[in-house]
Each structure stands twice: as structure tokens, then as C-alpha cells.
Amino acid sequence: MFKEYRYPSANQTDTVYGLVCYPNSPIRGYIQIIHDRYDHISRYCDLMKQLANDGYLSFGCDLLGHGKTAASLGVIEVNHSWQLIEDIHQLFLYVLNDFKKIPATIAVNQSDKKGSQTVTHAVEPILHGMLGIGFGCVLARNYMMKYKDVNALILCSDEGFPAHPRRSAMACRKAMKEKGKNSYASELKALLEENKQIYLEGEKDTHAYRSSKRQELRKINNDSACNFEYTVQAYTELLNQQMLIDLETWTAAFPKYLPLYIMAGMLDPISNYTKNIDSMLIKLKASSAQNIFYKYYANSRHDLFFDKDSSAAIKDLLLFLNNCVRAQREPFERLKKLNSN
Fold first, then answer.
1. What is the torsion angle, in degrees rounded to the nearest 10, for the CA atoms of residue 309, residue 310, residue 314 and residue 317?
2. What Gene3D superfamilies does UniProt report for this protein, alphabetically (predicted)?
3. CA distance readout (Å), 252 to 246, 283, 287, 288
4. Three-class DSSP category at 300
5. Cα–Cα distance, 243 to 145 (Å, whole number)
């Protein structure tokens, strides 16, 4: 059910770790997962299994500086900001090659005004859904500006767009100059992660912003791949990803009919308790986008799939994916029916 990948990063230095979970039944669609900060793809094995049980092949990679991709956790070395996105895309190409779902086609006879007959072929649509989680939402948005192969988008626990990008960029440049790219800067961490620092008075667990479930917090605290520090260069690159596109550019370029599902915990400080998402929804609704859906979960913090509403969130995710598959197939099924008459 699981298959691992190792492949060269676009930075020509690191080796990327990828993980695929495939169903025993025919593939209904491909779901690509992009993980969060202080995170890694193997945390989502249970989610991937549930997707497989519903017929979906899911896959994702450990980003540079994370999980089994990292030679040293928290170290991100890139020559340009698109290399993180290129690593994500490369895994999709490997998966398509190894797990081909050959689409059905229908020969459709058409007549023009002069009575000439032509034959066209309608191709069965195949779902490529992208699920961004936390910071992975930033990368998912950037991915869609570079590649056009996603036909359903899910943003889970999106942190939104940076409020003070210039101030943060200046702080990164200052730390780089004073301490060097491979150093660690506590003041930079405090600035760039200030939302989670102010969460829950009296909480002693530094991961309390992630989940209200003590069992999940223990797992996070015992997972070395969730407990590390980013270097100054890594923080700089994470910020660069946030600054590749702004809210206005993204909403203006958002495809009119692309299905988008936004899901978030109402107790998540990273999204400023969904306020950052609200501003994004307002912009999307003012654009030409037609298929925007969202749901907020009252009892959950940042790690939605590891909190009190996780079962409901996964159920809603599957419902959204099933609806996407159904909507994509409807025109094809109508043609198929007409062609058989």
C-alpha cells in the first residue's frame, strides 16, 4: 500500500524523500499532500490510508530541511525559490509514471452544416487534487502559479499572506549579515513566529498551538523531526516563498471554475483565528471564482487532522473529493450515454 521514493532535489545537493499510499482498488484520483513547518510527510500515514480506502492515491515528499530529506533538520539550501516547488512537481511526475491511470476515451461523431462527418475523442477527466497543510498552503499556491496540472485545491490551516513582509525581510537580511546564513537567531524566530508565541496563557507546552489533544502533543514532543531550529537562511527562504505572490495577484489569477475547499480550526493562532483566511475569502468572492467552499472547525487548533475535529475534517475532505470526481465525470458520462444510443 505504501511506496517510498528517493530522488535528486532541484538544488542538485539534497536527496528528496517521497511517500506514496495507493489503493488496492482502481485509482479514483491523485491527491498530493504538502506538509507544514516543523513537519514531515510520514505524520500523515493514517490520513493517506483513509484516502486509499476511498480509492485515492495520495503522495507527498519531505521538503528540503525536513524529515528524511534533511541531511540536517532546519537547513534549506536553494539557488532560487522555485526549487522547492520543482521538487514537489517532480514527485508528481514519478507517481504518474509508476501508477498510470489510463483515461477512457469516447469517439464522438459530429456533423457540420455541409454534412461532413468528423470524429473527436472525449477523454475521461482524472482528478489531481492538491492538499496544502499550514505552510504547505503557501507552496500549493505558488505551485499553481508555475504548473497548471491541479484541478482541485484544498487549503488546510492556511496561515494566509504575511502582514509585514518588508519588516520580516529586513530582519532576515540583518541576521544574515550579522550572524551568517547557517546560524540560528532566536530574535528572528520570535518575529516570524509571533502568532504562536502569544497563544494560550498558562500553557507550558510550546506546541500547544498545534493541538488541544495531550496525546497528540506528546507525539509531537517525542518526534525529533518536529523539534528543531531553522537556520537564518532557512527562515529567509520560507519568507521568500510567502513573498513570491501577494493576495491580489493570487486571487486575480485564480482559475474561475477550479474547486477550492478551505478548512481551518477556529482556535488556530497561525491564521489569527481564521481572520487571515476571512480576508482571503473576501478577495476570492470578489473575483470571478465560482467554486469556493470553506468550513471552520470550532474545537481545533492548527493541526486540524490531529485535533478534536479530525474525524469530521477527514469526512468533509472525502466528501469534497468525491464531489469533485462526480462533477468532473458528469459531462463525460453524458457523452458516453449519448454515444451508446
1. 50
2. alpha/beta hydrolase
3. 10, 9, 6, 8
4. coil
5. 13
In 3D space, the residue among 293, 49, 45 whose CA is nearest the CA of residue 152 turns out to be 293
Task: Taking each helix axis as running N to C, give the angle between helix 82-98 and helix 136-146, from 0 to 180 degrees, rounded to the nearest 10.
Answer: 80
* Average pLDDT in the chain: 90
pLDDT in tens, 249-281: 999 999 999 999 999 999 999 999 999 999 999
Question: CA 224, CA 242: separation in Å to the nearest integer?
Answer: 25
pLDDT at 164: 77
Contact criterion met (CB below 8 Å) for 304 and 297: yes
Chain centroid offset of residue 232 CA: 24
- C-beta atoms surrounding 7 within 10 Å: 14
In contact, 219 and 31? CB cutoff 8 Å: no
For the stretch 283-317, pLDDT in tens is 998 998 999 999 999 999 999 999 999 999 999 99
For residues 266 and 273, the answer to whether their CB atoms sit within 8 Å is yes
Instruction: Dihedral sign for Cα 8, 11, 12, 14, please.
Output: negative
Closest alpha carbon to 192 in 156, 226, 236, 244: 236
Rounded to an integer, what is the distance from CA 263 to the centroid of its chain?
12
**C-alpha cell belonging to residue 4:** 517510498
Nearest to 207 by CA among 274, 218, 74: 218
Instruction: Determine the Cα–Cα distance for residues 237 and 76; give it in Å rounded to an integer.
Output: 7
Report yes or no: 69 and 88 within 8 Å, Cβ to Cβ. no
Q: pLDDT tens digits for 52-87?
A: 999 999 999 999 999 999 999 999 999 888 999 999
Residue spans of beta strands (DSSP E) within 48-195: 56-61, 105-111, 117-123, 127-133, 152-156
Q: What is the DSSP-derived secondary structure letter of residue 13?
A: S
